[in-house]
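@channel sequence for tomorrow's demo:
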Amino acid sequence: MRIHVAGEEALGLCPEDLLLYLSVHLAVHHSLAGLLWYYDLFLILERWTDTLDWQALSTRASRWRVRAAVYFTLREVERLFGARVPAAVMVQLRPRGPRAAAMAWLLRHRGPAQRRAAEHLIGLLLVDRGRDLVGTLRRIALPPSDWMAARYDAAGASRLRQYAAHYRRLGQVVSQATPGLRPRRR
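structure tokens (generated this afternoon):
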């Protein structure tokens, strides 16, 4: 799509892809926390709501397996700013199952700081398909040796030392996520 930036013509994402990109970015890289990110999405909805191809957005979200991320970001934009996403689109995007229920619970009961602490857990909860989650968990627990060598080169050439460093790192990630799951202080 051609757009104008500072008086110059440039290529930009179509509104549907921009909405998808920013939704996924907010969900995955910011743990669904950040009022400014939500406001950006609200502004896109305000500007393009009458011309957005909602069916294309829903189809791409499904094809790209980012339905959960898009659903939860749009739901929060609705809650925060009163934006209106067509109900039929929200039904199409709405994830189901225990991961979706856990994600909805986190959004209701955890503030932005707690969500940021649980960023790795949120990333797992937003995986659309169960079989993708299994593969992701397998790669977390047993990453390929070339990845281990690149990531943990400082641990030494021994594969055993690299895996030990990896599991120490996983322990740190889990301990950092724990505050995100504790009850909020009043």
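heads up for whoever presents: The longest strand covers residues 2-5.
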